[in-house]
């Protein structure tokens, strides 16, 4: 019996062969199973993926289509479950496959060891001829390889390539020839208009001396026009040149409106309703609504933000420039902070959640591109004041009030300048800046005067004085650099001495007030919710000048331009002024 | 065709399907609909270095055992066992990283970039096999390299590759090494790691193209022993040179060669050099002339090779992220593309000017052009050396394991009758291990 025959009969050889066959069969089964799974994923599943994409598009177009939304959610969940299961299956399958293939290779080698043949030492060969042929073929093969590689290299040489040096020069030249991006307005241009909530510096003071002090709604005397605002909103009007801008929103609609200053005609409507983002409306209070934040403008574009977290820009003639979704802010009563501008940057005070949540941040967005220019996180809770950009003695500062910090930033970079721990929960009145001091309000509790020249945490040193009587919860303060005035929701108007916070006088009015007081031509303008416009002297002694009334509900602070007051009620926009 | 061959072929074809099995699906994140914002990406904690030191220790021990088994014990079965262990530990358990082959990229980057400090572990992984090679030959390739191990495992039906073809294909490894150093030095990428053909198999998933590459190499490896090691591995290029000067080398016979020819076809890697015959006079003169001509042409070959590689710098440089981004921005600016990519959007959001990007891309391209000259010169030198080598007749009087090519796998030991005698004596207790 030969060795080979003996080996074939060897139980070890038979075992090795059996393992080889079994592992081969197992490997085949696993490969087939995984391949079927993979084919299902790559060929069958994409159709369902496309269905999912189509449904997503439908839901963007029809955000209220609950049926589609439910189906979409079910499909998405099912789809993800299947995929997760398939990936898990593939992972386990791969491991088993590798194990079976290793087993196959090892047993195959083992089986082969029983059948090894002895080498044949008698094989005749002409070693010399083989050596010469090998050397010759070696040279030919190297040359062939070199020619092949050279051909590839030469082919590459013929392919067009970008000369970045040249492109750089061209791009530079093109940039020089491009029409320049319109320059953002100067500080003076800003002051000539009413480009944000409570005016150019957010302090509620108008530079114009010819502001009318009254009107007659019955006879329309002193009323230039009245126009309907298509969507509700509590935001205040802003004015740039010959155009007045407002925003309005409901659960499903978000729009901005442009009116003609002289006629009240609705010039255009910008729509931001069908933007991607949350399909559920934000949870807001009725008193806040979906469009409480006032717009802002740099004279190039106008910018609006809504309670849903959607923000967008339109050119002054109504073309959409950009739109973004910042995510629904976690705000107890609904988001209400207004936008403000610094040069070409749209400043957003995006306070949300609790202090420890680290959700709040200041965002500066490039007005032309919609891209974030800077973003600074801040440890404050959800708050409702609006930020102000003011020119202090040394620099521009972006001053913000929130729970618990009043923080000032460099508006160009977002770098924090100073901070003061002096506010509490439900902070709503906005800060103002007057004659070197900032004034903030802790609702119902304190009016606080702050020095703005510090750096870092200046809680111990920056508070100049604090007053604790007649403190509002919603309305922001106003100052004429000699006195500071506050107005409570209940109608108490208080006057404080600018330098030491001593209360000079107090006057109670009937009605409720949500609109912040404003100063124009040495007069204080107060607007009650019931539509009363009360004008009193902005002076150390109380003196009422005049009362007028519109039969409408007014929550928003007015805008003042040359000889005109723009009052927004819930449904209408009024222009008060003398006819030419 | 025998049943065994059919069996191999069936398995080989089935392995093609493994491509689909190992490819991992891309899985998009869910769309959140309720104002939920994705949490900030958290950077995982630094890897526990203990595992790295253990791996380094295992590498040292494995190299030592491999040297002992190849040179002293001369036991193929134990070498094979160690090889399987290395494949499981360095391959499947350690997921193929870090490995000495891939560490070439780290070393090259640290040598050319002042911004990068090579991790000590990577440096140790790079150096340790080289040190062992200087003393004991390619003991890393024999039983420690997981890439070599997985190829050795699938070598079921070896066929020999003609030496002229082997000699020529080996140039690819030199080219690959040159390009790997160039790509790492310019900061483009670590192409050895990126295109590691077996990493997807070790990790049980990965890029489909890499899976296909790995499976194809394994299919070829069923018949042609260790194709990646012999024709592509850039680390083997370095090991070959170190192995030439190693103090101790693997020998086919434990004694003097009796030229019995039994070992002639024993090596599936073509690493056994046969004794040479005296050169016939006519051919000798012809080859001498050829040698003189090639020596004269050497500078020309080197120059042409350098020029070709440097000319190929534009397509090569596109693998660099800066050049790739600049190209995309250029095409978008010229309206060739009307859409934008995440990368181009991110670039525009940085506020960096396009001119700056173009200048940076231009600088990277210049680096590739210069580097192309160096790599081309290196490859040209190798080509010239190989051509010259083909005209030189080395005198050999016995069968020898080629010091550069021998992978110290120990397959040839048992073919030597003197080894059989040694083993018999050893089993009868007459001698100790040599």
Structure commentary:
- The complex is a heterodimer of chains A (580) and B (434).
- Chain A folds into two domains: 3-113; 187-577, 7 Propeller (Methylamine Dehydrogenase, Chain H), CATH 2.130.10.
- By secondary structure, chain A is α+β, with helices and mostly antiparallel strands.
- Chain A has a five-stranded mixed β-sheet with strand order 14-15-16-17-21, with no helix packed on it. In chain A, strands 1-33-32-31 form a four-stranded antiparallel β-sheet, with no helix packed on it. Chain A has a four-stranded antiparallel β-sheet with strand order 2-3-4-5, with no helix packed on it.
- Chain A starts with a helix and ends with a strand.
- In chain A, a hairpin with a 4-residue loop joins strand 8 (310-315) and strand 9 (320-325).
- Helices cover 27% and strands 28% of the residues of chain A.
- Chain B is built from 20 helices and two strands.
- The model of chain B has no long low-confidence stretch (mean pLDDT 86).
- With 434 residues, chain B is an all-alpha fold.
- The chains are: A alpha+beta (580), B mainly alpha (434).
- Chains A and B meet through helix 2, helix 3, helix 4 and helix 5 of A and helix 1, helix 8, helix 15, helix 17 and helix 19 of B.
Q: Which key features would you list for this structure?
A:
heterodimer; A: 580 residues; alpha+beta; Methylamine Dehydrogenase, Chain H; 2 domains; five-stranded mixed beta sheet; four-stranded antiparallel beta sheet; 6 helices; 28% strand; elongated; B: 434 residues; mainly alpha; two-stranded antiparallel sheet; 62% helix
